[in-house]
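Wed. Picked up where I left off yesterday with Orotidine 5'-phosphate decarboxylase. The coffee machine is broken again, so keeping this brief.
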Amino acid sequence: MTSAPLTDPKDRLIVALDLSSVGAAESIVARLGDSVTFYKIGYELGFAGGLGFARELIADGKKVFIDFKLHDIGNTVARGVASLAALGASFATVHAYPQTMRAAMEGKGASPLRILAVTVLTSYDAADLAEAGYSASVEETVARRVVQAREIGIDGIVCAPTDATRVRTLLGPKGAIVTPGVRPDGAASGDQKRVATPYAAIRAGADHLVVGRPIVASPDPAAAARAVQAEIAAALAAS
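Structure written out below (tokens, as returned):
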């Protein structure tokens, strides 16, 4: 569960390929070139041939984060995770329910795949939790799930950048913290409700930042990626 030191800002940035086709993803990856080494594939691209594309990225020396947020009966989760481990993925997400987390850790076996537990989605706030029937606050729910994940031995946590400082305190120095909801200064927040800049997210304790639209929708994706990496470097230098 211990993370190796992450000294290169490239290792910290994960570009979200939230695109509708493999062709669109291939175009963005080509435009990003060597400026990006780590990509996330979620439902949209995954269900449009993205797992085959993930194999290609891995074969080309890139790292891949499969963000399907698995949550099902234990046997199904374990088998699904075993398949992702065989794919060669670096990260995979599950929802932070104890049975699901235990099954995922069983399914990955001795592979280097790292299981990340999703606490509360960054598009949720207190009103969303209340509507879903949760009486606890966002902060209380995140804390409970992080403690459970730590006790199970999960490899890392996905949380909003605004939760990263508290998550690091609860999680301890071991385990990765991966934060979506990262927006450079001036970028639209879109459907994210709990956001922070790359600089602030790293300073808060995040290890990896997931950035999608501010990079893939940019007229110059490589320049946008380098700008995020520059903020990461500045935050690391200030630590």
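Quick read: Residues 9-238 form a domain with the TIM Barrel fold (CATH 3.20.20.70).
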